[in-house]
Specification:
single chain; about 90 residues; mainly alpha; 5 helices; rod-shaped
Length: about 90
Amino acid sequence: MKYVNADIVLPENLLKEVQKYIHGGMLYVPKPEGIKAKWGENSGGRAYLTHRNNEIRNQYRAGLGIEHLAEQFCLSCDSIKKIVYGKK
């Protein structure tokens, strides 16, 4: 999280109102509900798992077995089955 000086970003009247409640401390301002990023969107984790799961599905369709895929991707057979037989 990046630190931003309130003197720079807030209008003077709003700054004075905030200072009534907290002065000299740090204040976290959350994003509005509709703007929150989903899990893994900022870090790239979601894209990585999507790519990995697509690769597992493609290799399964090409004829590789569940056990082989589990060993190759370091996942349990049950996890591979969920990816292969799940919706997508």
